[in-house]
Amino acid sequence: MKRKTGIYETTNVAGENVKAFIPNDLPPGNPKIKIADELESLLQTAESNIGRLEASGQMVPSLDWFVYAFVRKEAVISSQIEGTQASLDDLLATEAEANTEAPPEHVEEICNYLEALKYSRRQLHRKGGLPLSTRLFNGAHKRLMSGTRGQYKQPGLVRRSQNWIGGTRPGNASFVPPAPHHLSNLLGHLEKYLNSNDSLPPLIKAGLVHAQFETIHPYLDGNGRLGRLLITLCLEEWALLSEPLLYLSLFFKRHREEYYKRLAAIRTNGDWEGWLAYFLEGIAVVSDESVKLIAALFETLSKDRIRYLESGNATVVGARLFESLPQNPIVTVKSAVRICGTTRPTAAKAINSLVDSGILTETSGRSRDRAFSYGEYLKYLREGTEIIY
Ligand SMILES: Nc1ncnc2c1ncn2[C@@H]1O[C@H](COP(=O)(O)OP(=O)(O)O)[C@@H](O)[C@H]1O
Ligand SMILES: [Mg+2]
Is the CB of 262 under 6 A from ligand 1? Predict the structure, then answer.
């Protein structure tokens, strides 16, 4: 598929002439995206699997549990793709106020992602809040890049200088995004497209929008994370999922080389279809895995609940703590005091009862400031969240 997806413009960066790419506005034309053959069947599978994910979400009594867990899984993985050296356990331990080995500024980066997501969803849900727009992206970017590692990357501001991807300088970069003076126009069109009634199926639209965002590369840093966050927001805005349950970044992480290659091929070969095929396969695979994960987590909880209640160790506060474990799979006495609204001795007793029943395990290896993990639950949840070194 050869089509022109944009134009190259020679710009001078740091004394070097480079060819920056300016993408055409969405939707792709000449020829238009034709949903047929392989792409059609991939779309059907993706739609059907994401539909099953939505249905699974509706069928579990405590959807909040899984939203909580899956949003964190996505936050961790999407950040790891960009070099964040912290794991899901590091995030959960930090949330339980336990110590971790991970550099705090890396955990902070994941927390920032969670803040950016929360902010964006609040804007989109609230009456009079921002729609999918440059202003929303700026607000999300500001939160994403706040703190130690992002503060010098102009948080919340569209870049005012030329950037490049790959290579040590623009001249040997794998990709030079558009010069800064094009950004407001490009983002304006993207915003218009996001809010238009294009007849293309919403999953296709989401794929187009992500790639377009990466090609525009509007910020000095954070474009990958923000562009993937945008997918999550689109899926909810366009009623494919009523909660942010899809951790699509796992697919990008697993097939990272192909992720970059497919994005690049849109520019170099006009290959929108190849990117869309990859994207839809990701949606299909991760949706399917998420459905299975929901089932596995739910079954684990049901089994362990009975185990606990029948163990002879159960206490009322212990039962309450157990019910909060899906949202706090790592706990400390301190966090249990907060969660259960109780005293330290009662919280400690509740934790001990869950340890005696084989549900919680001490994982800090310390005698003070100990941390307890719900290992059986985390075993499933953790899959794919290993740090990329
Ligand atoms: N060849 C390419 N063409 C377009 N986008 C690309 C290409 N290679 C990588 N990307 C995108 O750029 C992202 C990295 O950009 P960056 O601003 O550093 O994001 P983050 O800070 O979130 O680290 C990748 O995750 C990917 O989405
Ligand atoms: Mg980066």
Answer: no
| Tokens representing residue 107 in the block | 């955990």
Number of separate domains in the chain: 2
Q: Whose CA is nearest to atom 1 of ligand 1?
A: 264
Give the distance (Å) from ligand 2 centre to CA of residue 153.
10
What is the residue type of 257?
E
- Please identify, among 229, 263, 292, the residue that sits at the C-terminal boundary of a domain: 292
- Whether 147 and 263 share a structural domain: yes
For residue 227, the ligand closest to its alpha carbon is 1
List Cβ neighbours of 260 (8 Å cut-off, separation of 6 or more): 174
Convert the pLDDT of each residue in 83-129 to its tens digit: 999 999 999 999 999 999 999 999 999 999 999 999 999 999 999 99
Domain range for residue 67?
6-292
Regarding the beta carbon of 211 and ligand 1, being less than 6 Å apart is answered: no
Cis peptide before 31 (omega within 30 of 0): yes
Nearest CA to ligand 1 atom 3: 264
CATH number assigned to the domain comprising residue 240: 1.10.3290.10
- Predicted structure pTM score: 0.98
